Amino acid sequence: MAQVNQTYASTRRRRAAAVSFRVGTLLALALVVGPALWLVLGVVVRAVPHWRWNVLTTLSQGTSGGLANAVVGTLVLMAGVAVIAGTIGVLTGIHLAELATSSRSGALARGAIDILAGFPSIVLGYVGYIALCVGLRWGFSLLAALLILSLMVVPYIAKSTESALRQVPTNYREGAEALGMSSGYALRRVVLRSALPGIVTGLLIALSVAGGETAPLLYTAGATNNLPTFSLLHQPVAYLTYYVWTDYNQPSDAAHYVSYDAALILVVLVLAMLAIARIIVARTQRHSETSR
Amino acid sequence: MDEPIRAQTTSEAIDPVLARLDPDRDRPTDVMATDALSLSFASTTVLRDVTMRARQGTITALIGPTGSGKSTFLRTLNRMNDKVPGFTHSGDVTLYGESIWGPRQDLLTIRRRVGMLFQRPNPFPMSIRDNVVAGVRAHGIARGEQLDVVAEMRLREVGLWDAVKDRLKESPYRLSGGQQQLLCLARALAVGPEVLLLDEPTSALDPLSTDAVERLLRTMTPALTLIVVTHNLGQARRLSDSTMFFFDGRLVEHEATETLFANPREADTGRYVNGLMG
Hints:
The complex is a heterodimer.
Chain A: H1 9-47, H2 68-99, H3 104-118, H4 121-135, H5 142-166, H6 170-178, H7 183-211, H8 215-220, H9 240-248, H10 253-284
Chain B: H1 10-21, E1 30-41, E2 44-55, E3 59-63, H2 70-77, E4 87-95, E5 98-99, H3 107-113, E6 114-117, H4 128-138, H5 145-157, H6 161-164, H7 177-190, E7 195-199, H8 207-219, E8 225-229, H9 233-239, E9 242-247, E10 250-256, H10 257-262, H11 267-273
Parallel strand pairs in B: 3-8, 3-9, 6-7, 7-8
Antiparallel strand pairs in B: 1-2, 1-4, 4-5, 9-10
């Protein structure tokens, strides 16, 4: 039949639509991947040529010296946020997904979380400064910085926990229910296990965000050239983004080097977090449906 | 002796005596029964006035078109519908003569005694061995090394042991669909249920796996009482002792399977079993 090889106008249109859709998605992907690579490479290219390892072991002297105080400070901040925001965020997420599914309190909590997530971080920082550093007379301190940073990332953690729990197949829940597991037991032994990769990934991304944050810390953590002490109050804490920000604005090469070094360390930290997230996901997914 | 026994056969004389000696004579042989059970979700009535009984050690098939209420009925028997928003019921469901909603009944114990197997195999995201003993652990039935014994026993029972004995620590999702369903069956059996509810247990399986599951189910009576929802009329005929035909939320007919298929009493039953109604 002659008609078999005939290309209809509608077929051509459909093909054109498919091709342009593909091109569109590729373009969007390039717009995401390009800048990410450009940023990482930009930092690496500027920092690596003058990199000295003793940056990690010597204290800062303002616009020169090392960054040991800032590295330790950032790690302490991230660890503290992991504990405080991790606990609150994960528990909130569990509550939203498992307990407050249709209730009014759930809607209220979700609204509050959305508002919190939409708050500019500098406003949170300033509120922290007024309320904690000045109001409660804590001064620039680890605790004020931890609380404000935690407040900032709790919404991320709660949201990612909630969505990870919602993606747990109904199959698992029904199976657990039919075996006579209590809902708490099923949550701990079956549901959370299945949601763990999503929860951990959300947590680590939130920690990367916390580690890369500057504005709220300027108001709450202050600045210091010393290592963090064990006191929660009245002692400022150093952090990497401070040096990225202040030293870049200095007119000397030495200060710029410090700035790029701090940026490089941050990038490596963030990449390490993402790698850890991947490893945890891979390890806990050994028995999951997706990794056969 | 007030009167001499005037029996025509020996058995007529002896049976009542033997029956009196039977320690189980007062125990109801109806394991699960419903009495005028009606059920609604909010304003939608799903079941109307269903009265049935499932005798000890029998297999009862539930058939009927989609939306006839048979799956809802099945899920009511282990109280899986209790938490569905808008759930209300009247009438009763009894397990060995006691209401499953009775004040002394513990929901988790009911679910242990009345197990369930689902349409799609649903192993948990844990190792094969942990899957088998998941319920046993939850109910504290066994612990430590006993769990390995339970796992082996149940896996042997469902004929899966030889296939999985070298990969007990591996993911269950590498097993075939049929094997996964057998694993779920082993998991359900491990907690020692008295009744097993099966919701289209083979509809997601290939014919060979279906055959394996069916053969296994037949070996589980009389210890267990099975209630099976199925869309597969052949399966109902092959497997069950009696069959219940549901239509539009009502139990239209409950008869011995052979009778129901050969001489349906109701016109609707006849049309359904002869393929005139989907």
